[in-house]
Amino acid sequence: MKKSILIIAMVLFGATTVSAQEYWNFGVKGGVNFSTVTGDYFDSPDSRTGFNIGVLAEIPVADRFSIQPEVLYSAQGFTEASIDQANFADVDDNVEYQLDYVQVPVLAKIYLVEGLSLQAGPSFNFLVNEELDYQPLDDDGEVALNNAQDFEFGGAAGLEYKFNNGFFIQGRYTYGFTDVIEDTDINNSAIQAGIGYSF
């Protein structure tokens, strides 16, 4: 799985020619996640506050249309106060179920007006960490798990505003179409907000 992530990243960001680099815009970005899960197994669990960080490339196709592939590390999951705390010692008020992914969204980017763009497209997500943290406010309490699927197919949509100096702000909603755990009705859902810089 890690080899697949590396290959995708190389294809998206390494296999470019000198002439292509004259037209492509590369950038870095980071921000905050407010993530949870949906489905019949959970009664509206609280969101986990995490982070996202990564790189992107904007490939112009037409005057107001670009393709934007990205590679992001995204910390997701949810917080659940009702998890049976009798099985854990020194439990915080809330227990975090942590699902961290390397996300590879490939987005269509349509400029509505100068600087303001609408983005939407599929996202190919690779699980890199799954654990239950019953002391999320401390360095202890992590319990490694192996229940979630290694791959998730999802989608992303949002808005971005890019300033003339290359800095941008964006907001995005992401959703996992495939089940977090095979044959269960559990799907990832997250709001991502962040800033970045395009070279």
Main β sheet profile:
8 strands, antiparallel, barrel
Low-confidence stretches: 15-21
Q: Which CATH class?
A: Mainly Beta
Order of helices and strands: HHEEEEEEEEE
Rg calculated over all Cα atoms:
18 Å
Helix-strand category: mainly beta
Identify the overall geometry. Answer: elongated
Q: Residue-averaged pLDDT, rounded?
A: 86
Strand proportion = over 45%
Structure characteristics:
2 helices; 8% helix; Beta-barrel_OMP_2; mainly beta; Outer membrane protein beta-barrel domain-containing protein; Porin; 199 residues; eight-stranded antiparallel beta barrel; signal; OMP/PagP_B-barrel
Note down, in words, how this protein is organized:
- The chain is mainly beta.
- It has a single domain (2-198), classed as Porin (Beta Barrel).
- The chain is built from 2 helices and 9 strands, in the order ααβββββββββ.
- The protein has helices at 2-13, 18-21, and strands at 25-38, 46-62, 65-80, 95-113, 116-133, 142-144, 151-162, 167-176, 187-198.
- Strands 1-2-3-4-5-7-8-9 form an 8-stranded antiparallel β-barrel.
- A hairpin with an 8-residue loop joins strand 5 (116-133) and strand 6 (142-144).
- The radius of gyration is 18 Å and the shape is elongated.
- Keywords: Signal.
